[in-house]
Design a protein that fits this description.
Number of helices: 27
Largest sheet: 9 strands, mixed
CATH class of the largest domain: Alpha Beta
Strand content: 15-25%
Number of domains: 6
Oligomer: single chain
CATH superfamily of the largest domain: P-loop containing nucleotide triphosphate hydrolases
Distance between the termini: 82 Å
Shape: elongated
Radius of gyration: 38 Å
Strand order of the largest sheet: 15-14-16-17-11-18-19-20-21
Structural class: alpha+beta
CATH architecture of the largest domain: 3-Layer(aba) Sandwich
Length: 797
Amino acid sequence: MSQGKTQDLLDFVRQLPVGMAYAPIYAKDQAIQSGKISKGKTPLERSHHQVMAPSDVALQIERKPDVFQAVGVFTGGRSMGLVILDVDRNLSRLKKKWGESLEGAPVITSTKANAAKYLFRVPEALWGSVKGFGLSDTGAGYEVLWGRQGVIYGAYPGSSDGKAPEGHYGFEGDLEAIPDAPEWLLAEMRDHAGKEIQDGGFIKNRKALDFSDRDPAEVAEIIQSALKVIPGQGAGSRDHWVKVGMAIHSELPTDLGLTLWSAWSAEDPEFSQEWSEGNPCDEVWKSFRKGPVSLGTLFWMADQQLPGRMWLSEDLRKVVESVEADNVTRIRQVVITYAEVIKRAKEIQQIQNPAEAAHAMNVLALEAGYRDAGALERLLIAQMQFEQQDDEMAMSHLLDKDLNFEYLIPDLLPCPGTVMIHGAGGDGKSMSAWTIAKHVARGIPFSVRGDLVPVKAGPVLILNGDQSEVQVQQQMRDLEFRRTDPVTVVMGWDLNWYYRFVKLIEKHKPKLVIIDSITGCSRGSAFDENKKEFASPIYWLANNNGRLFPACTILLIHHANKTGGFRGSTAIRDAVDEVWGLRRPTPQQVAHTGSNARLITVEKSRTGRDGSKLLMKLENDLTFSLVDYVESDGNEGPATVVDRVLQRLRAVYPRALTRSDLAADALCGGSVTAIKKATQRLVSRGLVAAVYEAPERTSYQAITSREKPLNTCPPLAEALVRLESEGGQALELSPPVPPVDQEGGQQGDSLTPCPPSKTSDTNGSTQGGQLLEVSPRQERTEEELARMMQEAAQMWE
């Protein structure tokens, strides 16, 4: 096809109305997937079971203009009741008889004389009572396409008899104003729907029994109702043809079943030559055996054409419903062993398509006698826990296990750990989580207690059930995530997918998992948020973190209630390690935080962080920052022994101090016992590292990020003004730190390191590393202040 004609076809396709099922059509003489050669009217294979929009068809044509050179549309319920009157000959005679009824209908023409196609709609109430028919059924020179596909625009391959040359389909009319089918056409369609296979008649005696015990004629009537709406798929559709036959054979493996399949097969005009030497269904029918394809497969095919079982009459619909309701009891006539159930369940979990896996699990659950697939999945999880053999442990075994409690972000995110953040809609819960994800994905240092600490970089897994794809994409762009960031997003997540969660963690090995949100990912839960059972999946996550799957930090997003707390049962709060409440700052806090900020308060913590706060802020460059936040209470000094010890260790970094050094320090204060507990807590929170220098001698060093300018000097004038203004307040001058050039760090080329300090008379001074300090507990004379200012000036000269 020339470039101009391809563009013309694309223009036509792109203006087609959305809502009908379209298909790209293979060009004439083009080889298709089945190995056959297209006659110019064969649709793309997947269009038979997938509704393709105009944009989907345009994409295929644009990619392969030599392969696809026309567009077709499926008729029937898939396209809102579209029916095509395909006049192959005698058009003038038909116009003379029914001319007025054809006016206003979109019409398709070709190089074939006295022929055309007219498009109408069948009212929805009649979809289950009409049927299409072929040219040979009436001898009137036209056929009616209902459930089948018809080409509406593009390359015309020429007539099969060679009388009409190749050319182009022409189109006139408005596809958005298709008129209802005329009464004479509906009458013919109803007439063909009423012509049933005569094999003793279809049945009058209907028993309320399952299919295995039902009268075969009644089963045949149900099957025939499905076959009425399931179209043949023409060339390359052997798999479809065989699957229909196997579905019929599963419940009706008799001559009556073969007759039904044969009659349906013969309606596909593209296989007319196959019947010249006999029935092509006979030999294939004999090869069928009981297998995975059942009558349910046939029902599914029919539902694709007419959803809601509209293809069944009302009385037959009730029969099928009663059979399905009784399915569990009926199927459980055969008992499946436990080993077989576990084996098959594990095999199903390897299926990539979640919908297909869910269907298979439901089928297995019914066969095994379980109420639903959820019960079967819990069985599978219990088996996995048993295989670990660690549910019941002696104390010696527990203490000997190699278990490590670490922090993904020191003093912020424990690993393994489960954290819930809740807040009102639109307050920025997701943005807070994504910002933390950015820190973890890139290993960006995080501000904790006023200083940057290193973050362990690693993969991030986001399980989303609360927002649309476009919303997630926009938020990621707002936070300037890069394509190379190790972040994986899974849409439409369900908290009850335990086994799939384990497999995802094993596959991606994330450091951080974000679940957005608890409510959005609990659509399959049978309990409401106020029931304690609603928290069961969260308990499962917390209890099995590091056991059934590699240890990680799990951050769950939840919605707030009207009073500002989290929605639902308190069992949700009990299930997690920490609870963070996100709120807008109060008017008094805005003076310190700014209006474009949110405060996150740690409401519950199993590591003693209750009351801690984080500050998320929208910066001037429209990016978001998230830092540890300490509210000022008017006291400039650290409030607790733990905070004072941390400040001292950070001030002397990279030096390390022993507990004795810290106890003797005037700034730290506190008893030896308090200093001991303070260092233990700081080590457990990941803010301080223990350095073992010699037996019974342990020093402690602050853990701080190398990716920042450390201990740089302020301008001299600024320092002197500060000295003068502070008077008798404590003055701390940072020790010298050489430029860092280590893995994970960077050198500050434009920063001037502090010159060596002079030895002070204060306690515990060491060469080049001691702080010059004035104790806040001492009164200083003007003479002492003058001396200190002189020493400071000499240090910065």
